[in-house]
From TrEMBL:
The keyword DNA-binding applies. InterPro entries: SpoVT-AbrB_dom, SpoVT-AbrB_sf. It comes from Haloarcula salinisoli. Residues 4-45 form the SpoVT-AbrB domain. This is AbrB/MazE/SpoVT family DNA-binding domain-containing protein. One of its GO terms (molecular function) is DNA binding. Keywords: DNA-binding.
């Protein structure tokens, strides 16, 4: 963990190692106990494809699996 401070114009500079690891673009999300920075990929669609490249199920199969899991969790 590292610290960052706002400058007099309200800008936040992230440490170099964070920028090198996650990039230069972020969504700022207001959460209950603070804020969260979520890195935005240069090409979000390509990043999504890469994230799911090893998934061998169809969208319908994934949807059915998610529905079944949520029903099981709710106690059917």
């Amino acid at each position: 963990m590292s610290d960052a401070t706002l400058d007099d114009r309200g800008r936040l500079t992230l440490p170099k190692e964070i920028r090198e690891r996650y990039g230069d673009s972020y969504h700022v999300v207001d959460v209950q106990d603070g804020i969260k920075l979520i890195p935005v990929a240069d090409d979000p669609l390509e990043a999504l494809r890469a994230e799911f490249a090893d998934v061998d199920k169809t969208v319908d199969e994934l949807r059915d699996q998610a529905r079944d899991a949520s029903l099981d969790e709710a106690g059917r």
